[in-house]
Amino acid sequence: MMETLNEIYSQYQALMHQLKPSVQESDYTVLQKHIPFLERLDAIDRSSISIFDLNRKSHVYASPSYRNRLGIRDDDNLGLEGFDRLMHPDDYLSALRSSVHFMRLMLDIPADRARNYKLIQDFRIQNGTGGWHRVVEQFTCLETDHTGKPWLALSILDISPDQDVHAVHRATLIDTLTGELYTIPDANKTGTNDNEPLSGRERQVLSLISEGFVSKQVADKLFLSVHTVNTHRRNIIGKMNVSNTAEAIRQARDMALI
Length: 258
Prior knowledge:
single chain, alpha+beta, Beta-Lactamase, Arc Repressor Mutant, subunit A, 7-stranded antiparallel sheet, 8 helices, 21% strand
C-alpha cells in the first residue's frame, strides 16, 4: 500500500532522532579543516556544497554557489529542510523515502562502514525564473562521532546532464568500497515484475555474481564491458524490486532462476 507523506515524514523524524551523534562543542573544530577544500571545489567545479549537522539538525555550511544557485539569501537559515521547499512536489515524497532508506542503512551497518556509502539523487528544483531544472545530489557521511555514528553529512549538488523536466526523481545507493549498487524499492510494488522477467544474459550475470565474482571478473568471463555488467546489475535490481544484488540472488534462487 502506498505510504502517505505524513507517514514517511514521521519515519524520517524518528530516524533523525535515532541518528543523534555524541559530540562536544570542541569537536566542531574539525569543520574548519574541511571548509578550505570545499571552497576551492566550489570555485573550480562550481559544485554547490553544504554540510548538514545531525547533532544540531541544521546546515552548518553552505558554499556561495549553493546559495546563489538555489536563490537562498545569506541570512536565510537553511534549517532541517534545506532546499526541500524548492523541490518539485512530484519528487519530494520519493526523495524523502530515499532519505529514510539511507538513514535506516546507516543504523544497520557496522559503524566503521558509515563513510563507505553514498546516496545519489536526480530530481527537479525550482530555478530563479520560476521554472524547473534537474540537479544531481551526492550525499555521504563526512565525519562520524567517536562511536562511529554519522555526524556531519556532505551534500554536493550539480546541474544534471539530463534536463528532462518531465522525468521523476531517481535515486541510487552505492557502496563506494565494493562498488555494490542499491536501488530504493518502489513502495507500490512487491516482488518481481512478471512482465519483465530476467533475460538470459541477466541470469548469467546474476549467477556469476552469486558465485562471488565482482563486476570486472563477470565482464571478463562474458566478454562484456564493466559498464554493461553494471547496467545489467541495475536492471536486475529494478526488475526484482529489491535493494541490492544480494537480495536479488536470494529471490532468484527461491524462484529457481539461477
